Amino acid sequence: MATPSTKKPTPKAGAAKEYMFVWEGKDKTGKIVRGEMRAATPMVVQTVMRRQGILTHKVRKQSFRGGRKITDKDVSLFTRQLSTMMRSGVPLLQSFDIAIKGCGNPSLARMLNDVRASVETGSSLSQAFRRHPQYFDALYCNLVAAGEQAGILDSLLDRLATYKEKILAIKSKIKSAMFYPIAVVVVAALVVAVMMLFVVPEFKKVFASFGADLPAPTMVVIAVSDFFIAYWYLGVAIIAGTVIGISYTYQRSVPMQAALDRMVLQLPVLGEVIRKATIARWTRTLSTMFAAGVPLVEALDSVGGAAGNVVYKNATRQIQSEVSTGSSLTVAMQNAQVFPTMVVQMVSIGEESGQLDSMLSKVADFFEREVDDAVAGLSQLLEPLIMVFLGVVIGGLVVAMYLPIFKLGAVVS
């Protein structure tokens, strides 16, 4: 298939920036017609439409105000759309116009409009993407640049779209595995707080009329309730301060990031799931970069950050340093001591056979399936544990409150 041309138009000196305008008018038969047109000013739109026999009476600049935050899913969907259109032979700028018109997020439309304007004024597509690093990281831009240089931009965009879709799938599975237990713990905490602040005090008033000694569990619960009522604001401040403090420190302290990421990998059950997901992302990223023709040392620059874990990011820097001094990737990965033997052996076979990208892709496929199985097993394991947790916490509070009533009933009978 012929590769779509991505040659950039030479910008004219003093060329005005163009915008998207929405117009409405009447044709020669008096029929109301509407459309969109890219132009520098509304006057240009009216002039062009007049030449086509259309008398415009409304011309307004298309607005992209508001909109929700641009997510990785938005970028992934746009990459797939751009890849599909370019592989079908649609010119680059027209592909952007179609993507912008069909975009349901004004924030994304505004950003894509800026990228399109940069390309139209002579910038390469990779340069235009680099002006938005919060949405297009170094890996994304490097792959696009490699595609432009080799004249296979449509193929590279297709590979990039597949890569982003698989990475998003891995992240989604990890989030789904963690959401259920976190949601249960939060709900349990809210139930306990309501009982301590509102329910237990009412029971305390009833127990005061008994005139008898209360069981030890009931007295403990009442004491905790009294503490909650007296110092609830202190508890809220401590929890909020802890969460904000850890989040702030994590974002700005590399040692803190390394310590937390290392601790997460050591967690029972969940740590193994995260480790497999990290290895899947690492191998998938390196496979995509290497297959695109990016040199190994340069590809490793993007791989560490894409792994999403500081432990593997530091290991990647060590691997890159050793590879740049002449070591093979296999030896460097062995020295890093963060990869299973199977991964190292597959990489070794790939290097010897000259099919490193294919072997890395197979490793990524294997670990992605492992993550699927691990998440399914984790869900089955957590369900009984969560039921036991709720029974001990909520059931314990209920029993402690009803013990005096049972005791009174025994005395009366």
Describe this structure in words.
By secondary structure, the chain is mainly alpha-helical. The protein is built from 15 helices and three strands. A three-stranded antiparallel sheet has the order 2-1-3, covered by helices on one side. Helix 10 runs antiparallel to helix 11 and helix 13 packs antiparallel against helix 14. The longest helix has 57 residues. The N terminus is likely disordered.
Topology of helices and strands:
Elements: E1 19-26, E2 32-39, H1 42-51, E3 55-61, H2 72-87, H3 92-101, H4 106-120, H5 125-130, H6 138-150, H7 153-208, H8 216-252, H9 254-265, H10 270-291, H11 296-307, H12 310-324, H13 329-336, H14 341-353, H15 356-412
Antiparallel strand pairs: 1-2, 1-3
- Beta fraction: 5-15%
Identify the strand order in the major beta sheet.
2-1-3
Shape: flat
Number of distinct helices: 15
Elements, N to C (H/E): EEHEHHHHHHHHHHHHHH
Q: Quickly give the structural class.
A: mainly alpha
The biggest beta sheet is recorded as:
3 strands, antiparallel
Classify the helix fraction into a percent range. over 70%
Q: Kindly report the average pLDDT value.
A: 84
Indicate the radius of gyration in whole angstroms: 30 Å
In short:
With 413 residues, this protein is mainly α. The protein is 73% helix and 6% strand.
What labels would you give this structure?
15 helices; three-stranded antiparallel beta sheet; mainly alpha; 73% helix; 413 residues
